[in-house]
Every structure is written in C-alpha cells, then in structure tokens.
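name: query_chain
kind: protein
chains: 1
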Amino acid sequence: MKFSHFMASSLGRGVRIVAGLALIIIGIALGGGWWALAVVGLVPLLAGAFDLCLFNPLFHQPFSGRLVRLRQ
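structure:
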C-alpha cells in the first residue's frame, strides 16, 4: 500500500517523469538498437505527466493518482 500511495504522490509523479526522461535520453545517446529503451521510457514519462499509476490496479487502487490521493 505504501508503494501505491508514494507513486500517487507528487514526488512519485516526479520520479516517474525523471525516470522516463532518463530512459529516453540514454536510449537516444546509445543509439543502435537501444532506441527501444527510449520507447520504453515513454511509458513512465506519460504515466507521470497524466497522473496515472500503472501498478495501482494490482493493489486494488484506482488507476488515477488523483483518486488515490483523495482516498487517503
């Protein structure tokens, strides 16, 4: 539960955005077949940007980070 609440917090959103950006930058910098890493980096970047928590349904929590914060 603490993990899902952290990921729904503002800090958790920031971590997802930074991690997504890091994966994208690393994938582009390495070039070659590493472009797939940049594509994978889009998932946490977009999830953080749109305030979605992809793991929360596994913890029986809402998909929306805003709804998780309202439940606290």
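note: The CA atoms of residues 3 and 14 lie 14 Å apart.
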